[in-house]
Amino acid sequence: MVTLEKIAHLASDCQFDSFGSVGPLDPGSNINLEKLSILGEGTRHDVCASTYSPRKSPLPGICHAFTQDGRCVSLFKTLYTNHCSHQCNYCINSTNCSHRVQTFSYTPDELARVTLSLYRSNYIEGLFLSSGAGRNGDLIMEKMLETLERLRRRYGFSGYIHLKILPGSSQAHIKEAMELADRVSINLEAASSSQLDEICATKSYENDILKRQRYIRDLRGEENLPAGQTTQLVVGAAGESDQDILDRILYEYREIGVKRAYYSAFSPQKGTAFESRKGQPLWREHRLYQMDWLIRVYHFPPGDIKWAFDEEGFLFNSDPKLAIARELLDSPLDPNEAPYRDLIRVPGIGPRSAMRIVALRKTRRIAANRELEALGVVIKRATPFLKINGWRDATLKMWSG
Length: 401
Known about the structure:
11% strand, Transcription Regulator spoIIAA
């Protein structure tokens, strides 16, 4: 099991057969174990995957996330510095937080060596690097880019890198980040300019965030940034509705070309300006991910997804696809006749299984539920909405008031 002492030792003596020696740290320099802990723990609200392992990592900052294909990957998640000049009312690193922890910062070479040591020892597969803005955001961006440059070009690091771009970063810094990282992101934090003003008075929604996202969109080519750009929102900090959030995400996918959006339920932190505000339930975050999936993967149009919201624009704590199906499917569908756009609305039928149904019925009729199950349909969820040869196998109170 990896320990902080082991990481410190590895970072001080990076000598491995597969890469050769990169030499010792500067004379008299030691890895500060408290720094490793605080800067690693400082990324706990930065999301790199919609699913993660609940097991506790032996080192703060090592995150076990799951990809869409079910593979578990380990990333070293850390802040470059927890010093920040912004006044984000929900953040413990904000200048207006009365309960701030001790301030730490890495040097580019120090962070590069720690990352490389973890990578060469097979503890991680990549780096997720975020940061506070320090006293000067441009200077901190330069330091983070220097870290990535050392990893890639001096030490030959070939692992995955996700870099959080600081709000207001220059176009030149963003261009360099896109040449060094696999993925970059700028946190939206809120769904609108007015909501960001309530969360943080020191950031401009249009200039510091949206304009920088457009830089990434316009600079991206075929050779750089293979994993694209992402973004993240704090859910419920400014009283926004779920519909507000998803309207913004529709814009992000359509106009900005964001590959993924991540959601983090607001949790009040001691000493912050929002300490007394009500925290948001994790199920709200989960339902937003489900809706995001319907938008991004199932390609549900806005006219369909509107049925998942209540009158105030909030999601229920139930499967939103089920709520949509209850509104849009007037009667059970025959899988031998229903068009793809209707099949995809049925709970338990995804894009792949819908395409398989359409392909199979070109050669023969589907006669039983077991044939649908063989095509990947989740029968228990789907059969209340289906009929085969005029027969239904299940009932559901979905067309009654």
